């Protein structure tokens, strides 16, 4: 890709930490945080706040600790609490469960982080834009010939703006004349005095109205120079949801991003926003990124409710080189070398080389608006279907394309096929997971999962871990390994996915991992031809289950593990008197213990001359 089309991610260092009752002089020190508060923060933010540097944060809010729904009541309480503590509320987003704020130290954040209604606090990130014979490849002419053109719908393009005076849009001003395809053009970033300074957003919007010629676009400029901050993007996204009904918004397109995510990113504020949009009936198409990675996609495409989109060629354009890679061979449906890929990439679409609105560009930026336009076509054709059902149409109706770089198959958008499907399943699977048949303890990191899941369209696959790892075929029994970590309670989370691509929230089970044998103490006394043995033991993780005391005549102790020798005592007793024995004889003893996880100690040995 040209250098100016490559993804760049720069996260503003910052986030919050505090408790409400630090000793004098430590209010902004790193020890001011409770354990619960620390878990809500991005780790790299502490230094910025301790140093007293003003930091922008995004707080994700829940109504209460037990409620899944998020709403305005909790937000208003948190906003009031923040202002009372000296934080500055930067904006109020009525349609999103997110509060943007600026803080200068930890003290103002203590009551916020300790409030159960605050789910997470994330620093602001900055994204760059990802930089057509494509329509026949996705079946657009067939759809259009059948009257499926997205009439009456709108797609919001959050990008560098839209030059609505281009012939592709037919406007002298937004909404003027009546046939103008740009309903709104508005700057959410700093006003730059230009309809579109780079042409990127204009090209993206041109692709949308090419796929859905009956639709209109809303051009929202979220870029300040070369980057767009999450606060600006979320402000624009909030506006879209507030005005969704007015413009019949079917989809939002984000041809931007940064970073590299090897797993879905459900906790990111952008992911929370996209989930809110999906519940409201809006499909969010996001470019996967142009870094040529084969096991990761960019943020915010990694959000579970985003329709992440990679790029294929729409024709043989000859050998072509980009700043990150070269494609010596090109052909229709060949994945472009710059296109990011991952197991959780949802769709492919044409992204090279795409002519639209007077610009020729290549990138996943150009692939994503094909999907956003297709969502508008499907929304107009099936107005009663949910966003999940429309996404299911695109995913299940796609043509399978194998990426030769990693052998992974991903559906490529096919609008014509998506229109012919029966009503798709828009509901994710439900299911359960049980570790080691419900055992409380395990002494091995290797465990067996018993799985059960159901779905109207069938459960296709699953992934283990949170964040989710690679998907594997659904089975009722799966062996897995607990991640390396501390002894104690371990959790295994599983997500199920149906054949339409609907992914369930994780289900989980816990088990106590104990790989350490018990500790022991053993002592004995002898008199009157008898040996009195006493002992104790401890196991910090799973607890002691039983002891085993064995003996052998002579100076050689029974073998480690207490498998040999004469059994004297077994169970929970902690003493035993052996005898009568021959005075002057020598006896050797070994004490072993087993914990509740099944770990048996080698044992302690003792030698006694009988008195």
Number of domains: 4
- Low-pLDDT segments, ≥5 res: 1-26, 65-69
Helix content: 10-25%
- The gyration radius over C-alpha positions equals 31 Å
The shape is elongated
CATH topology name of the largest domain, in short, is Rossmann fold
Query: Tell me, what is the CATH class of the largest domain?
Result: Alpha Beta
Mean pLDDT: 89
Structural class: alpha+beta
The number of distinct β-strands equals: 37
Major β-sheet strand ordering: 8-9-7-11-13-15-18
CATH architecture of the largest domain: 3-Layer(aba) Sandwich
Q: What fraction of the residues are assigned to beta strands by DSSP?
A: 25-35%
Please characterize this protein's 3D structure.
There is one protein chain. With 611 residues, this protein is an alpha+beta fold. It folds into 4 domains: 115 residues, no CATH class; 294 residues, Rossmann fold (3-Layer(aba) Sandwich); 84 residues, Immunoglobulins (Immunoglobulin-like, Sandwich); 91 residues, Immunoglobulin-like, CATH 2.60.40. The protein is built from 13 helices and 37 strands. The strands form 10 sheets. It has a 7-stranded parallel beta sheet, sandwiched between helices. A hairpin with an 8-residue loop joins strand 36 and strand 37. The longest helix is centred in the middle third of the chain and has 18 residues. It is elongated, with a radius of gyration of 31 Å. The chain starts with 9 loop residues before the first strand and ends with a strand.
């Amino acid at each position: 890709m040209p250098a100016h089309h490559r993804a760049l991610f720069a996260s503003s260092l910052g986030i919050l930490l505090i408790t409400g009752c630090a000793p004098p002089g430590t209010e902004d020190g790193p020890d001011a945080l409770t354990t619960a508060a620390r878990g809500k923060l991005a780790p790299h933010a502490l230094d910025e706040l301790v140093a007293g540097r003003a930091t922008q944060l995004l707080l994700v809010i829940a109504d209460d600790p037990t409620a899944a729904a998020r709403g305005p009541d909790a937000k208003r309480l948190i906003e009031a609490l923040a202002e009372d503590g000296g934080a500055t509320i930067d904006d109020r987003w009525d349609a999103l469960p997110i509060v943007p704020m600026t803080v200068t130290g930890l003290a103002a954040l203590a009551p916020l982080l300790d409030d159960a209604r605050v789910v997470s606090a994330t620093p602001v990130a900055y994204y760059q834009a990802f930089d057509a014979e494509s329509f026949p490849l996705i079946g657009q002419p067939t759809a259009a010939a059948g009257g499926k053109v997205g009439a009456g719908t709108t797609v919001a393009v959050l990008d560098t703006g839209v030059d609505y005076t281009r012939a592709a849009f037919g406007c002298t001003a937004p909404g003027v004349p009546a046939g103008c395809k740009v309903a709104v053009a508005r700057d959410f970033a700093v006003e730059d005095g230009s309809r579109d300074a780079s042409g990127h957003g204009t090209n993206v919007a041109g692709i949308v109205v090419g796929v859905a010629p009956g639709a209109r676009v809303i051009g929202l400029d979220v870029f300040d120079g070369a980057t767009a901050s999450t606060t600006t993007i979320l402000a624009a996204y909030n506006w879209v949801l507030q005005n969704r009904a007015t413009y019949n918004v079917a989809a939002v397109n984000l041809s931007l991003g940064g970073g590299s995510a090897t797993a879905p990113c459900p906790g990111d504020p952008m992911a929370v926003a996209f989930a809110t949009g999906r519940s409201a009936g809006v499909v969010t198409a996001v470019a996967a990124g142009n870094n040529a990675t084969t096991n990761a996609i960019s943020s915010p495409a990694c959000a579970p409710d985003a329709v992440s989109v990679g790029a294929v060629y729409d024709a043989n354009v000859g050998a072509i080189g980009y700043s990150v890679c070269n494609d010596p061979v090109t052909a229709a449906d060949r994945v472009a070398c710059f296109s990011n890929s991952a197991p959780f990439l949802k769709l492919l679409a044409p992204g090279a080389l795409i002519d639209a609105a007077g610009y020729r560009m290549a990138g996943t930026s150009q692939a994503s608006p094909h999907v956003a336009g297709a969502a508008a076509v499907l929304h107009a054709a099936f107005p009663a279907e949910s966003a999940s059902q429309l996404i299911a149409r695109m995913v299940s109706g796609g043509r399978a394309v194998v990426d030769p770089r990693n052998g992974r198959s991903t559906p490529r958008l096919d609008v014509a096929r998506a229109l012919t499907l029966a009503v798709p399943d828009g509901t994710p699977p439900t299911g359960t997971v049980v570790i080691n048949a419900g055992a409380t303890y395990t002494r091995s990191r290797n465990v067996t999962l018993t799985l059960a899941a159901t779905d109207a369209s069938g459960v296709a696959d699953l992934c283990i871990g949170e964040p989710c790892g690679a998907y594997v075929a659904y089975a009722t029994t799966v062996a897995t390994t607990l991640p390396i970590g501390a002894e104690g309670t371990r959790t295994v989370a599983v997500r199920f996915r149906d054949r339409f691509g609907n992914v369930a929230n994780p289900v989980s089970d816990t088990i106590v991992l104990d790989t350490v044998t018990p500790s022991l103490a053993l002592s004995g006394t002898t008199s009157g031809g008898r040996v009195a043995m006493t002992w104790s033991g401890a196991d910090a993780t799973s607890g002691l289950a039983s002891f085993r005391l064995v003996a052998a005549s002579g100076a050689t102790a029974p073998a480690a593990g207490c498998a040999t020798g004469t059994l004297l005592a077994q169970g929970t007793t902690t003493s035993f008197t052996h005898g009568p024995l021959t005075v002057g004889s020598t006896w050797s003893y070994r004490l072993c213990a087993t914990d509740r996880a099944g770990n048996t100690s080698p044992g302690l040995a003792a030698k006694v001359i009988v008195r």
